[in-house]
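ugh ok fine here u go
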Amino acid sequence: MISQEDTKHIAKLARLGLKEAEIKKFQKELSSILNYFNLLKKVDVSNVEPTFHPGENYFKERLDIMRQDKAESEKPEKVNKLIEAAPDKKKRHIKVKAVFK
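structure:
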């Protein structure tokens, strides 16, 4: 079981202002977390090959599908069709709701 002093110290490092009842609650919760880690230490992983990334081939397989980051011009009829479909517009600009007030 982690001590109350250790719990207070951890709370101070995390800049948490804890009351006495909260300290006791966190003391129990931190102790249970540490106990779980001790349980994990007992697991036999001697036959498990270490991995450095969960998807080691993820980036290798996707390098060939990356495209250049450059602007491409669109066909005017496609742009006009999109603007026409917009519910609220002013000239060639689509009106949207304000994000910030």
